[in-house]
Fold this sequence. Notes:
Elements (H helix, E strand, L loop, with lengths): L19 H13 L20 E10 L11 H18 L3 E11 L7 H15 L3 E8 L4 E10 L13 E5 L4 H10 L6 H8 L5 H9 L4 E4 L4 H12 L1 E6 L11 H6 L6 E5 L7 H8 L3 E9 L5 E4 L14
Parallel strand pairs: 2-3, 7-10
Antiparallel strand pairs: 1-4, 2-4, 5-8, 5-9, 6-8, 7-9
Helix pairs in contact: 1-3, 2-3, 2-6, 4-5
Amino acid sequence: MIIPAGSAGPEPHLPLGAGAEFDAIRAMLREWGPRASGIGDDAAVLDIPAGRHLVASTDATFEGVHFRREWLSSEEIGARAATAALSDLAAMAAQPLGLLLALGVPESWQSELVELARGVGASAARAGCAVVGGNVTRAESMSLTLTVLGTAERPLRRRGSKPGDLVYVTGRLGGPGEALHSLQSGRVPAPAHMLRFASPRARIVEARWLADAGATAAIDISDGLGADLAHLARANGVTIELDVARIPCMEEVTPDEALASGEEYELLVTFPPTAEPDASQFVARFELPLTRIGVVREESGEPVRAIGARVDPARGHDHLS
């Protein structure tokens, strides 16, 4: 059962009016069960534990931009959309507090709302996050916009790295990118690649472990390892020296392909050299690799400098190009 932080349990929903819109909301609430709390007011009311900061993020998923209906089930589409939003909380090492879902629904999608809700609810449950509100409206194409709220005593930010810090990444990379390339080419993706594309995970608990271990900065990998390394470097005014040979790749994925693979939702984190994390403990706790892939250096005119191979470390997704 999902219980919002600071409450004794899920709040009861208010009675809803008549009509197709409220029928759809009632159907989604039945699917979510105790994973939804206090739906029906004009806004959600949540308690923030004393001594903690509120952490908030919004993420939008649009048909034809972030997914194609023929590639994924409605449940997978909902789960991926929620994971993308919740991953921003993971990047800040925040404890999820609540999720709000705004749906733009074409007529052709109205019968799929419960399946979409099932996917959103599954990702929310894995993250320990209640669904606390949202909106449903008619639209020309399907869209899911999720706002996520969390709390953290010490949010982990992008800025905080210093020259000499060590750069680590969770998981193995490249699966989502390879699955996408296969789908775009009309091929069936390798099962392991398709699983990573269709069912990513927000590293909520892992991020808090890393923060407690002394991480100085973090970012989640949504645009691709190369692009997000550059984002991290620019935020800190440094150059990241990347050891290409150490990039943890999935089977049948090259380091160059792993650098460009987006929607991974793994974590890039930096640590001071005097407080290296115990990767073996991380693996034992989460059954997930934690790999050192580089070092933070003084700024040298380029955000990322690759050593060990000839690759383009700047490759990655640009939402407006």
